[in-house]
Amino acid sequence: MKILFATSECDPYAKVGGLGDVIPSLAAALEKMGHDVRIVLPKYGSINYVSQCETVGGPMIVNMGYGTEFVQLLQTKYRGLTIYFIEFNRYFARHRVYGEFGHGYHDNWERFAFFCRAVIDMCPFLNWAPDVIHANDWPTGIIPAFLNLHIKPSILNNTKSVFTIHNMAHHGYAPKELLQFAGLYSHYWHPFAMEACGSVNVMKGALQFANKITTVSKTYAEEIKTAEHGYGLDDVLRYRAKDLIGICNGVDGDVWNPKIDKFLPENFSTKSLKGKNTCKQKLQQELGLSNNLNIPIFGVVSRFFHQKGLDILCNILPNVLKNMNVQCAILGSGDQHLEWRLKEIMSSFSGQIAVWIGFNERLAHLIEAGSDFFIMPSRYEPCGLNQMYSMIYGTLPIVRATGGLTDTVDNYNESTGTGTGFVFNDLTDLALYNVIGWACATYYDRRKDFEKLRQSAMKKDFSWSKSAREYERIYFATVN
Ligand code: ADP
Ligand code: GLC
Question: Which ligand is nearest to the CA of 330?
């Protein structure tokens, strides 16, 4: 099949969170299965790959509702995949993908509506008719609506749409002008189309018009059909229930693999964890933690947002550090209040906790490899990748039972000594404190179980092959 992935993130060109990891690795898995898979994303100012890119043809026309614009289409190859970039400086020559200093760009709805239309117009420009355009999250959410139009490039007459929800919390609200701006009919201004509470809701449009909807874990597919996790669109999802399926994300074994990880001072595998100790030593040295291999390190790598529940971790961290013989390595950025709180805790417990504010790919790999435990107290988690990376790296995840965390982590059972991590239910200070205490006690007092859990975690198969087959089934279902 011919599959075009439309996305706002794609590692190594643009990554803010897990979407950036998922797109190239899923696309590569599908390509290996024999499909013609291509990816298109905006050419952000931070992408410096232009020299390795070739320009495709002359300027390309984008047919907006208000008139035409010209963009440049660029192309490169990555892991055998064709990657297209839409170059249009007015919207995309900025350093960040979505915004700066904790605020989204004010014109995000225009930027991404423009990108969506460019994806549509790219197909006749290339004279290439994908069987499926696979759109991801609200920035590409207008694509299903465009494909639903009667008037569209004829080359797309048989093209179907698949829309994946990576995060139900972000809908892409826009003023009514969006419809005119993008060249969509005004009858899309309707509660059964894209209107919601007096605004255009881009996610709603995607959920109404996509031929198939997926989300990134089975549990999250159920959760988002409820009022608690549906963010006001649960009724639409219940209506579309037969076209909604949860497919768990996989792990890219070329990038996240302790046997070959190029970011680590020494590689390791289930056969020997010597390299993991070297990583722990390096992590302690590099972050200024006291040098002691016998103290467990609890790692965190995360966007600092409400979703991730790190405010709850901040509430209990001082007591954890006071009462338990543990260390903490935290990497992330986002909510400035949280950044400030964590730095304050660091100043009171120096040598025991290190907080690195910012985005640092290498350090993320080192924390996964050098820690003993990894904390994810998420309020909700569509899938989550870090808990899977942790397990593969022999770092036991401590997760709240929600979304993909439920589906991927097996809770430690003390009576059988089985499991791959520690799971807790209520997102309260006490529950999080207790589960960290439980992990800590397992490390010190039930060493045999700890090692057994670590081995089971490292042996889990999170490769993309099974999930990529499920996506393939969805694609076939849309065209048949
Ligand atoms: P989400 O997409 O909700 O942020 P995921 O667990 O799916 O959560 O994916 C997060 C991805 O982003 C992982 O690859 C993680 O390592 C990476 N990441 C998050 N914050 C940082 C950071 N500050 N530095 C480096 N990588 C980060
Ligand atoms: C979102 C979700 C995360 C998921 C990622 C990739 O950012 O928050 O849980 O793993 O998308 O699908």
Answer: 1
